[in-house]
Specification:
binds adenosine-5'-diphosphate; 8-stranded mixed beta sheet; about 400 residues; Carbamate kinase; binds aspartic acid; 6-stranded antiparallel beta sheet; single chain; VC0802-like; alpha/beta; binds magnesium ion
C-alpha cells in the first residue's frame, strides 16, 4: 500500500467548506487504498492575526510565549479536519506537534526539526486511521512549544514524509504548481511540470514563497519526492526532483523576487584591512542576516561599503551602523528601504554565456536602473527600486521567453 503525506496550506483550509473539501479529497485517497498522513496550516490570515495580537501587547514579543500563541492556529484546523473526516465515515485522529513529538531545537519562532517519533503514527495508520498533524510546530527536549518559521508547515510535511519513507509528499496549495514566476505578478507565467531541487531551492531562497526554503533543503537531503498541486483543481502539478531530464531545455527556469529588502551604505570608509569585519561584525552579532555585499574600489584611501538586509531589520541595522561608523571615522551612512531584489534562476546558465548581458539589456531598454548585482552559478540577482518590481519581472519573463504558448 502506498503512503502519502498531504499538506494543505492556509487558503486550502480557509473556511469550513474548504475544510470539508479537503476531507473529501483525503477520503477519496483512502478509498483508492492509500494511507494518508495530513499536515495542515492555520486557516488563512490566522497566523498574521496572532502576530498582531502579540505585538499589541509587547513590542518585541517574548519568543517562548510567541510560540505558545502561534501554535494555536494549527491546533484549530487539525481538530476541525479530523471531525470533517469522521463525519464522512473516515476514521481520523489529530495530533499537535508536541503530541507526536516533533522534537526541535530551542530557537523559538525559527526552530529546526531534530527528530520525529513515528511509533504512534504508524500504529494509527495500521488501524486504518488518517493521521492529521499540526504543521509549523515542534517541542523542545524540555517540553517548550516551538514554531518553525513562517511557511513552516511545508517543512513539517516533508520531514514527516522523510521519516515515514512516504511514497510522495504532496503540497496542496492555491496554485496548481510551481510557475516560471509568481502568477500574481505575471499572469502569463507558465506552470512547470518539473523543476530540480537545486533550482527550487534557489527560487525559494530568492523569495518564491510557494515552498519554505527548509522544506526544499530537507526534501533534497533525504530525497523525498515532492509535488506541488492545487487543492481546488485536479492536475499533476509540479514535481521537484533530481533529474534534469524532462526539464525543458530552457536557459532560465524562473524568476524570483523579494520585496522584503533594504540596503545600507557607509561612505568614506578608510580603506584598510579588517574594515569589512568591523562594519558587519556588530550587525551579525545582533542576529541580523546580511545578504548582498558590495565594496567599491578605493579612491583617496577611502571606499564605500554597501550591504542589504531584511526590511524588518532595517531600523535596527541603521542604529548599529551609525555607532560603528563613528568609531571607524567614516564620513556618512545612508540607507534605502524601498528596494527589491529580482533574480533569474536556471541550471541552463552553467553552460551558456551572455545571460547576464541579456538580462541587463532587457532592463535597460525599460529604463530600470540596477543598483546592485550578485551572481552565482545558477542565478543572477539585481537590486532595483521597489516601483520597478512588476516591470522588471515581466520584462525578464518576456526576454527569456518564459510565457505560456497561446
Ligand atoms: P499556502 O498557504 O498553501 O502555504 P502560499 O501562499 O505559502 O500557500 O504559497 C502559494 C503562493 O505562492 C501562490 O498563491 C503564489 O502567489 C506564490 N508564488 C510565488 N512564487 C511562485 C511561483 N514561482 N509559482 C507558484 N506560486 C508562486
Ligand atoms: N501558519 C503558518 C504561517 O502562516 C505556517 C504555514 O502556513 O506554513 O506561516
Ligand atoms: Mg506556504
Amino acid at each position: 500500500m502506498a503512503l502519502y503525506v498531504h499538506k494543505y496550506g492556509g487558503t486550502s483550509v480557509g473556511d469550513i467548506s474548504r475544510i470539508k473539501n479537503v476531507a473529501e479529497r483525503i477520503h477519496k485517497a483512502r478509498q483508492r487504498g492509500d494511507d494518508v498522513v495530513v499536515v495542515v496550516s492555520a486557516m488563512s490570515g490566522e497566523t498574521n492575526k496572532l502576530v498582531a495580537l502579540a505585538q499589541a501587547v509587547q513590542e518585541r514579543p517574548n519568543p517562548r510565549e510567541m510560540d505558545v500563541l502561534l501554535s494555536t492556529g494549527e491546533q484549530v484546523t487539525i481538530a476541525l479536519l479530523a471531525m470533517a473526516l469522521q463525519e464522512r465515515g473516515c476514521p481520523a485522529v489529530s495530533y499537535t506537534g508536541w503530541q507526536v513529538r516533533i522534537l526541535s531545537d530551542a530557537s523559538h519562532t525559527k526552530a529546526r526539526i531534530e527528530d520525529i517519533d513515528t511509533d504512534e503514527i504508524i500504529a494509527d495508520l495500521a488501524c486504518g486511521k488518517v493521521v492529521v498533524v499540526a504543521g509549523f510546530q515542534g517541542v523542545t527536549e524540555d517540553g517548550d512549544i516551538t514554531t518553525l518559521g513562517r511557511g513552516g508547515s511545508d517543512t513539517t510535511a516533508v520531514a514527516l514524509a522523510a521519516v515515514l519513507k512516504a511514497d510522495e509528499c504532496l503540497i496542496y496549495t492555491d496554485v496548481d504548481g510551481v510557475y516560471t514566476t509568481d502568477p500574481r505578478v505575471e499572469p502569463r507565467a507558465r506552470k512547470l511540470d518539473r523543476i530540480t531541487f537545486e533550482e527550487m531551492l534557489e527560487m525559494a531562497s530568492l523569495g518564491s514563497k510557494v515552498l519554505q526554503i527548509r522544506s526544499v533543503e530537507f526534501a533534497g537531503k533525504y530525497n523525498v519526492p515532492l509535488r506541488v498541486v492545487s487543492s481546488f483543481v485536479e492536475g499533476s502539478g509540479t514535481l521537484i526532483s533530481y533529474e534534469e531530464v524532462g526539464v525543458e531545455k530552457a536557459l532560465i527556469s524562473g524568476i524570483a523576487f523579494n520585496r522584503d529588502e533594504a540596503k545600507l551604505t557607509v561612505q568614506g570608509v578608510p580603506d584598510r584591512p579588517g574594515i569589512a569585519s568591523k562594519i558587519l561584525g556588530p550587525i551579525a552579532d545582533a542576529n541580523i542576516e546580511i545578504d548582498m555585499i558590495v565594496q567599491n574600489v578605493a579612491e583617496d584611501q577611502t571606499t564605500d561599503f554597501t550591504f542589504t538586509v531584511n526590511r524588518g531589520d532595517y531600523k535596527k541595522a541603521m542604529e548599529i551602523l551609525e555607532n560603528t561608523t563613528k568609531e571607524l571615522g567614516a564620513k556618512h551612512v545612508k540607507g534605502d528601504d524601498k528596494i527589491v531584489k529580482v533574480s533569474i534562476v536556471g541550471v541552463g546558465m552553467r553552460s551558456h554565456a551572455g545571460i547576464a548581458s541579456k538580462m541587463f539589456d532587457a532592463l535597460a531598454r525599460e529604463g530600470v536602473n540596477i543598483r546592485m548585482i550578485s551572481t552565482s552559478e545558477i542565478k543572477i540577482s539585481v537590486v532595483v527600486d521597489e516601483k520597478y518590481l512588476e516591470l522588471a519581472v515581466r520584462t525578464l519573463h518576456e526576454a527569456f521567453g518564459l510565457e505560456q504558448s497561446e
